[in-house]
Write a structure and sequence with these properties.
2 domains; five-stranded parallel β-sheet; 31% strand; elongated
């Protein structure tokens, strides 16, 4: 199955008019298919940039269809919602793997830990707004990767710690800016790259030359 578009009226395939004007929803869908394909190694960085530019300027459904005709759509994560709410008391919450990053999140935690792992996440917007309310024992951890910037200037803290450690490769273009706002009244916020596995550390360690 190719990465076909689903028009707003729900009609797809041969019955859809190719000269129908494309909607913003359809353009967003094409952008998501292209980014997934690039993440799977089906498109080079140059091909991705070229097709993203074409998708943003596409006027008709046929213009968009040509950009994904040679790409599969199976296995795509569910379409991202504009807002995800996490309201948790006791028990831990994790978002990991190829989850879609929304535009906004509202996170309320008390006596529990929440972890947002962005290392394999599918990013389709350049900004994520997170409104947090951390109470006693409510801790938030963000696992980042190069190209993800975490901004905590909007946070108010009465207790608890805030630690942000940028990912390596500081010259990497910013792919996602995470803007944290709200308040921490007893919880910790940590943003850091994932810890390296022992095998990776051993490969990077300098070899000692025997005497």
């Amino acid at each position: 199955m190719s990465g076909e578009l689903v028009p707003d009226d729900g009609v797809s395939g041969p019955g859809a008019r190719p000269d129908m004007r494309a909607s913003d929803r359809e353009r967003d869908q094409v952008v998501e298919i292209l980014q997934v394909a690039a993440g799977d190694g089906r498109l080079t960085a140059a091909e991705l940039d070229e097709r993203l530019d074409a998708s943003l300027s596409a006027r008709t459904a046929s213009d968009l269809a040509g950009l994904t005709a040679d790409l599969p759509s199976e296995g795509m994560p569910p379409r991202a919602r504009d807002l995800i709410r996490i309201d948790q008391r006791f028990g831990d919450v994790t978002r990991t793997g190829r989850w879609r990053v929304p535009r906004r999140m509202e996170i309320r935690l008390m006596f529990c830990d929440a972890k947002l792992d962005f290392t394999d996440a599918l990013i389709t917007h350049n900004t994520l707004h997170i409104d947090v309310d951390l109470r006693i024992g409510g801790n938030l951890t963000l696992l980042t990767r190069p190209g993800i910037v975490v901004d905590t200037d909007g946070l108010e803290r009465s207790s608890g710690e805030i630690k942000v450690r940028p990912a390596a490769e500081a010259d990497t273009p910013t792919a996602l800016r995470v803007l944290l706002a709200g308040q921490s009244r007893g919880g910790d916020i940590v943003a850091r790259p994932p810890r390296r596995k022992l095998s990776e550390l051993l490969r990077r360690a300098p070899r000692q030359i025997g005497s």
